[in-house]
Amino acid sequence: MRLSSLAIVSSAFTSAAVLSLVAAAFSAGAVEDRTEIDVRQTLDTHNMYWAEVQADGLRVNLSGTAPSEAARFNAITVTGQVVDAARVIDLMQVQAAEAIKAPDFSVEILRNEDTLSLIGLIPAATNRDRLTETLGDIDGVGTITDLMETARYPVPGGWIEALTFAIEALNELPRSKISVAPNHVRIDAAVESTAAKTDLQRRLERALPDGVDLSLTLTAPRPVIAPFTVRFLIDDNGARFDACSADNAEDIEVIEKAARTAGLEGAMRCRIGLGLPSPDWAQAVSTGIAGLAQLGGGSITFTDADISLVAAEGTAQGLFDRVVGELENSLPDLYALHATLPVTPSEDEEEGPPEFVATLSPEGMVQLRGRIADELSRNATQSYAQSRFGASAVYTAARLDEDLPDGWTIRVLAALEALSKLSNGVVTVTPDDVVIAGDTGNENAQAEIAQLLATQLGDGASYDISVVYQEKLDPVASLPTPGECVRELREIQKVAKINFEPGSATISAESMGAMDDIAEVLKTCGDIPLEISGHTDSQGREEMNQALSQERATAVLNELRLRRVLTSGYTAVGYGETQPIAPNDSEEGREENRRIEFRLLAPEVPEAITDAALETTGEVAESAAEALAEDGSGDAMLEESTDDAPMHDLTDAVDIEGSGDEIDDASGDEISDAALETTDEAASQSGDDAEVNGADAESGLDPEGETGAEEATEEPNGTGATQ
Hints:
Elements: H1 2-45, E1 52-56, E2 59-63, E3 65-66, H2 69-80, E4 88-90, E5 93-94, E6 106-112, E7 115-123, H3 128-136, E8 143-151, H4 159-170, E9 175-181, E10 184-190, H5 194-207, E11 213-219, E12 229-235, E13 238-243, E14 245-246, H6 249-261, E15 271-272, H7 281-295, E16 298-303, E17 306-311, H8 317-330, E18 336-340, E19 356-360, E20 366-372, H9 375-389, E21 394-400, H10 408-419, E22 424-429, E23 434-440, H11 445-457, E24 463-469, H12 482-495, H13 512-523, E25 530-535, H14 542-562, E26 570-574, H15 587-593, E27 595-600, H16 607-631, H17 634-644, H18 650-653, H19 665-686, E28 719-720
Parallel strand pairs: 2-4, 3-5, 7-8, 10-11, 14-15, 17-18, 20-21, 23-24, 25-26
Antiparallel strand pairs: 1-2, 6-7, 6-9, 9-10, 12-13, 12-16, 16-17, 19-20, 19-22, 22-23, 25-27, 27-28
């Protein structure tokens, strides 16, 4: 009985304890839930949605990623307003602060002959002392002013390459401003002449590292002409200039008027340059030309203030004396006239005066024959010729003659120097005359030769210059135009395709010969705006074809770079299966569609010009429609057009080669060639660097010269690529 009572009491206490524990647990859970809710609401009120709240007994754990250290501290403070701050446990992370953006590094290098200044901000890692030392080693540089600032940030990609290229360019640019930035160099410089400008531009573009963009502005000021030279002749071939120079267009008009009065016909070419022998240059030249016209023949040469007049053989002595006397009195001060009347040889004089002849072949071989005064003169003549044309290119077959007139060797050397200005030709030296004839690729060669002989031979010397400018010999003018380059690429692609390994962007081994031929053509074309476009057939998924065509176009571009082709104006674009030139329902058609094309990009046309062109096109089309309606041929043409080809938009309407279905290969090539030739002429007249072809749609180079093609203007015959 007693045991039973104890058990009952123990059970009661145990039950009470369990009930207490359960009640405590529920109470603690309710408190935690209430705490979490209150804290969450408070944090949300302060827009701290990023914070997470978890109540653990009396503790309140805050977690999440705070946007900043200040936001983390504010979350703790706000939570402390709801619960005791001592109960708040900080488990929050702070979002990593973004690295401070590096500044835009750039440096301006200004050079004016021997002085050089550097202004800008460069990375601190750039070896400033080494940079200054390197610039000081440039020929002609004396004083260097360093105004550069530095910043401790990583060296950006392309900075070293751009800076190195700029230093190399400074060696060629004594008067220039070069702006250097990562992957970009801008050069503004003055050069001596147009020829020097073209040569310098090519060398700079050839030395440009891959990945570095170049903006190049070269100005060619008027050349410094010394001495100023004019040589005017009247002979059996009519009146003409061998050389002409003046310092302004107004003087040229005065000189031309006098020459026309004296019998000059056809075009007249006169160089404008810096410098002037006297303010009365045009008056003196026009007066001298008028005097020569009164004599009826001969030559008059102006070399600065020295004038040499040589009358034609047979001129009457009285006429000669009168004209020379009038000239001496009418010429402006400072000018000195030396007049010569050649003596007509008598019938009993020995025929065949002594002569020296030098010939220059198109291959560069020189032969010297005729008469030389003595052994010393022969050695001097041979050495001079070898220095001008190369030791192995000169063959001497001249004999000695001690009875030659005084000054013979000087005349021979002057003739050889004149010959060196030709691509091929012959010079003949006689006691009374020096005759130069041949072909040249230098438009100014005749003027330069006349100036040379006037200076070397002195007053009263007689010489005749018959030099023909051949554009094909001109190293600049003979360069192919962009349109001609594209046509050459098309011809190569007709013979050899650019094929790829199946399903890859690896160019097949048998196509490497075609790549070599294409690279050789492009090396002669310069940095033209060109698009390399890749195309596939419709087999496979469209996304895969798009990616594959892009990879193949890029592979061709990389192969050209490996062959050291200037490619800064090139772009590689993949069109996938979107531009077929043949149906994809046959293997032959799919083979045509798998191709690489080279397309010439055209300059961007301003909207105003485009609108005007479209308006003009509309007027022409309207007039044509009215004309066709009058003769009844319009319906027939429309019907024929509808039957042969679908109606396209304006872009397709000017497609030269079409899709391959509407125009056969022969006619397409013929029209394309004609369009390219027209394009070349238009670009040559406007001075643009890019060719505007009539094929395909508009695409562009922005005014700064950067390519931004939307579509290509040239549609050369593409080559197949095995997909």
